[in-house]
Structures are given as structure tokens and as C-alpha cells.
Amino acid sequence: MNTRPPDGITRRHFLRQTACAALGTTGLLSTLLNLGLASRVGARETGDYRAIICLFLMGGNDSYNTLIPSGRDEYKYYTTIRGGLRDPEAEGGGLALPLEMLVPIQPKNIPGRPFGLHPGLAPFRSLFDDGHLSFVANIGSLREPFKNVRQYQAQRGDWPLGLFSHSDQQQQWQTCVPDARSGIGWAGRAMDVLAREQESARRSTFNISFSGMNILQTGREIVPYTMNPDGLVGLAGFDRSVHGGSGATLSEQVIAARTEAVDSMMQGVYQNVFERTYAKITKGAQDTFEQLHEDLKTDRFPDWQVTEDSPMLEQQLKAVANVIEAHRDSGVSRQTFFIALNGFDMHSELLNSQAELLSMVAGAIEKFWNHQPSAMRDQVTLFSASDFARTLSGNGQGSDHAWGGHHFVLGGAVNGGHVFGEYPIFAAKSLAEIDVGQGRVIPSYSVEEYVYPILKWMGVSDGDLFGQVFPGYAERFGGGGIRKTYPLFRAGTA
Hints:
This protein has helices at 11-22, 29-35, 72-81, 124-129, 149-154, 166-175, 186-195, 250-267, 273-295, 311-327, 350-370, 428-432, 447-458, 462-469, 473-477, and strands spanning 50-57, 67-69, 103-105, 115-117, 133-140, 207-209, 225-226, 334-341, 380-386, 405-411, 419-421, 445-446. The protein is α/β, with parallel strands linked by helices and 494 residues long. The protein has one domain (41-231, 304-477): 3-Layer(aba) Sandwich (Alkaline Phosphatase, subunit A). α7 packs across α14, α8 (250-267) packs across α9 (273-295) and α10 runs parallel beside α11 (350-370).
């Protein structure tokens, strides 16, 4: 049997993986996976707390009906390329939203070029106007940049792997590796770097997911700690508060005996490296569970009543807010959170289904923001992600898989009220240069260039970003630094 770690994998990472494989017969595997086998980190200094929250819109959000050019000529072309206005009483396949339904915004950095938001995003208008939220236009996975359709067609070998595929594009958005399949995410790699600058024995976790295990937060050393919005899941049948002495029921005796056995296993000294690693992981996971259970006993937002319109998403964001409040003064200096919302693969019923989901998104985010203590707003950034945008041309009822799309970023340190990136000019000649077919628009910014200012705000240096977090970016895009960026955060906050 060959036990040599695969190339590029550290011994510690190899041991963790093989230890997990060895748990299959123990009965504790599912619990340990739920606990995330999380590494724990400490703080840089008191008050230096920052958190990022990724809201992943699974399936590919039709972002050209999320942020819409509303100037006279551009809007006219928008209605044309989307097949006309949808008449709910007719059978036409138009996907364009009526101008009077749009929520108007005027970006500070594009004077004279107005936009409209999907009516479901109406709460975003005040966040945008108040300077807390900005959009970043035309983002997508890029192996190499393409200037126009001709270059795209001539360089087929430079297309991202599995272009227009859900699984591949979701993975590339989470890994920033567009030319190979990878199980290590950019947030995980960034946290591997940041963990070195902090105390390793901190009781709380770095990466917390409310949507199960994910690639985005998986690093070589740091992995997600998965939680349910309504609480934590500990080791089955393990409870130190249950005693099996005189008068105990049979069930209590069983739990007490199991708890004693697991405690003994965790405290044991083992010669075998796999047994030793397994015991260490189990103890770490249980210690973290107990600490988080204690930290989260109190609901820090009792006046926040979750509405019936968006129960799951809002419940997850409230749980994030509670975790942040529990840990911002505990010594943890950096945390990431992951939330996924399904349902955006709308090949049919686009207008009705998207309206429902976007209303859910905006309503939940508005309540999250309104409940953030003013002192914490500068320390929290929430951003959207998705597989890809969708085709500008419709298929009769919806839209299909496309490429570059638009995203929003919210935070107290965000330079709000802007549309960054490069929103395509909605005119026949302009779009013809970047439309590879059916309204699939070539991205002007890569995923790395989208998250670059976010990670800089988190404190990751350029040396670590281009050396570890964005593998291959410098070689693919040329040079040793970022190709394109923009002032996503206010001066002095990054």
C-alpha cells in the first residue's frame, strides 16, 4: 500500500484526511463531519475583528434582471434583447421587466447612466443611497482574459474548465482555480495564511458554514465548522451532565457509560499515529462544540423575529449575527461565514420565481443590517456569489446558463453607492464584441479580481494572495500583481 501523500498536500493535511477515512466503522463519523473537524484560531489584538459572509445563489442568478440599465436607449435595447416585455396574460416569451417596476438608482461613479433594480430588491435602494452597498458588474471565472468574441473563439484552449457547467463554475467560484478541479477554496487558503498570525488555541472557530461542508472555506489546515441555524449538533449520546449512579434510568446509565468511554478515548495516549490523530480531532471538535454551546446560549437579538417570507435565509443570517456578537470580543479576529440559497436555475418560470427569491434575499439582508450594532458595521462585509449569469435571450419561459454577471457587496466599510467593474453597454455594436452566443457575456473581471479587495480588507498581503490564495493567477494573467481592481472599500478601512 502506497502511503505517500499526494504532491502538494502537507503531511498534516494528509493525516487529517486519512484519519477521517479511518472513522468509517466507528459510528462517530457523521457527527465529526457535522462538527467540521474545525481548527481553532485566536486573535491579533482586541478590537481588530473582521468577518466576511458569502451568500451563494445556487443555480446561476439572472443578474441582468437584477441590475438593469434604465437610460432611454439602453433600456430600449434591453427590452429587445430580452425578447420584449413579459405579458402575464399572453404566451409571449419576453423576459424584460417594465420600466415603471424598476427601483431607480444612480451610481456615483457613472453619472448620467441610470440603473434600475429588480423590484424584489427594493430594500437595497436605501442601502445603496446611504453608502453601505455597491454592485460589481460582469464578474465570472476566467482562465485568461478575452478582449472580444474573436479572441474567445480562437483560444478555445484558454476557456475555463467546464464553462457553462453548474458544478464546474460553482467550484471555480469557490476555488479561483479555473483550469483544474480542486477541493481547496480561496477562503480556506486565506484563513490558512491568517491563522499563522494568531494564537492557535482559541476556543472558537474561524470558518463557519450554515449550508454544510463546502469547498470555499476548505483550506489545507482550516476547514468549515458546520452549524444548523437553530443550534449545534454534538456527539450522539455524549453528555457530561448525565450521571449513571444510583437511581439513574437505563437510558441515563447508557449515556453516562458512553460519555465515560469517549472521554477515556479522547484523553488516551496512543502510539499509532491514526489513533492519536483521531483522538485529537474528536477532542477538539467536542471542546469547540461545548464552547460554542456556551457562547450561544443567549439570543443577542431577542427583538429580531424571523418572518415567514424568508424563514430559512433570515434564520441563517440571524445565527451569523449571534455568532459575531458572541465572538467579536472573545479574541477571534477573523471569521468567514457561508450561506447557500438554492433555486436560481430558472430555465422556466423565471419572472415569478426570481421575484420571490430576490424578495427573500433583500428582506433578510435588510433585517440583518438593521440589527447590526453600529459599532460592528465597519467590521462586517457580506457579498454575493453565483455559478454564472444567464443568457440575455430567453428560451420561451426563462433563461439558460451564461457567464459574466453582477454581484452586490454590503458593509459599513464598503464604498457604497457605486457600480464597479464594467457593466456592458446595452447597444447592438457594443454587445456584439463580447456576446459569445445567446447573450452569454464575456466577463470583464475574474473571480480573483472580485474577491481581491475583500481579502485585502481582511488583511491578506499581496505576497500571500498571489503566492498561495490565487494559485496560477500571476502566470495566467501576466505580472506579479492584480490586473484590475477598484476602490470597493472606503479609504483607510482596508
